Amino acid sequence: MKHLVTLLILFSSVFGFSQENAQERAEKVVKTHLKSVFGEEYKSYGFSELYKTSTARIMEVEEIKKKIDVLRKNNLLTDSSLKSYDALIQRKIDTIKMNKEFPIYDIKHYFVVNEDGVDYLYQTHFFLFPDGKIKELAQLMKYEFTGKEYDWFYGYYRRNPALPQDLLENKKVYKYLDGLLENPEDPASVMATVITTYSVISTKGYLDTVNLPRILAMKWMKKNSEEEIIITEFSPVRVLRQEEEKIGYTLFMKLEIKGVETVQYFEFDNQFVLTGSLPVEKPYDSYFSKE
């Protein structure tokens, strides 16, 4: 019995974070790394749940350990079966060590860094070895805050009520916004929609589906134009359909750049996430028809 316990402790220490709150240990590793890269400009804004991905052999050992625990709790673990499991675990651990197999832990992290006076919101995916060393990382998003976006993001992050007079509806707002951020195809576009939706609801007291796409379009133009722009007109927000199914919304924006009039087309999905934008050719009148 003592030999089996020793094997299980060894397996846990070599092939996984200690049981002393693996989530906090992983977060500490990530924070330490980012502070070494960005210094005092790094500000942490939340982590995803820590996930572990194991090889088939490691999972087999974990299943055997669970089975032993069940047998022990039910007083069904005999000396002979214990020795058999002991030998089986030893063989699998020897193979795991020989093949240098390890579980990999992964965790996603939002953080803000000020770079040359501009605040950027990052989302980065970290992959960690069991000893806490970083295996690799992938940048999922680098989002530039403009105007008061950082303030609105901070309010959303702190869960400040968007609808303080209706806490039930406020919970629905957060459930909706949080849902948008679950595995998005374009994290930056979705984050723009989340921040802007939160600001519109907080300001207006409801989801203004006319102003929301307009604000998103203005933000996009300002971020993607090196010249000063003057917006002169918006088209109505129209439903976009494909074979009678509603798939989103469209909007046209008339603007001037260096005195030259132009029109930009914007396309959104059903949650007002910007999915595409392009300039359109004259004549412009039909784009702004009220019909």
Mind explaining what this structure looks like?
This protein is of the alpha+beta class. It contains eight helices and ten strands. The protein has helices spanning 2-15, 22-38, 56-73, 79-98, 149-157, 167-180, 187-204, 211-223; strands spanning 42-47, 51-53, 104-115, 118-128, 134-144, 229-234, 238-242, 245-257, 260-268, 274-280. The strands form two sheets. Strands 1, 2, 3, 4 and 5 form a five-stranded antiparallel beta sheet that branches. Strands 6, 7, 8, 9 and 10 form a five-stranded antiparallel beta sheet that branches. Helix 1 (2-15) runs parallel beside helix 4 (79-98). The protein is elongated, with a radius of gyration of 27 Å. The model is unreliable at 1-15 (pLDDT under 50).
Which percent band covers the strand fraction? Answer: 25-35%
So what's the overall shape? elongated
Mean pLDDT: 89
Terminal Cα span: 81 Å
**Category by helix and strand content:** alpha+beta
How large is the count of helical segments? 8
Number of strands: 10
Task: Using the CA coordinates, give the radius of gyration.
Answer: 27 Å
Q: Please outline the major beta sheet.
A: 5 strands, antiparallel
Element string (H = helix, E = strand)? HHEEHHEEEHHHHEEEEE
How would you classify the quaternary structure?
A: single chain
**Spans with pLDDT under 50 lasting ≥5 residues?**
1-15
Fraction in helix: 40-55%
